[in-house]
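Can anyone check this?
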Amino acid sequence: MLHNRRAPHPTIVEELVAALAPHPKGLRRWTVMRAIRANREAVSREIPLKLEADVERAFRQFCQGEGTRAAGTALFFRPAEKAGEVWALSPPPANTDETPVTDAAEAVLTVPDETPPQE
């Protein structure tokens, strides 16, 4: 995983992993962006104007089926069985017991619930 030990904050890839790790079936793109923004607000971290473009670029760079990423080297994928723009963490390779979780993924990150309120 890409991690700059000198960086005071997690990288965008680590923020993506942290947002998606608790949701193995994936989250809609909008919900991922909202979770990353909420986490940054909670720790008083800057939210640049181009945050969504940077997150999208990082997702595509490490996404299965985007460019030259093979299934074994991709961190993310788009579940085919889900309608809309859903992002998910790639499952670990079948021959290992490792999970694609980093220290940033273990951080507490609140992801808003996508279910409509019950009346």
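Reply from J.R.: I decoded it. Residues 12-92 form one domain.
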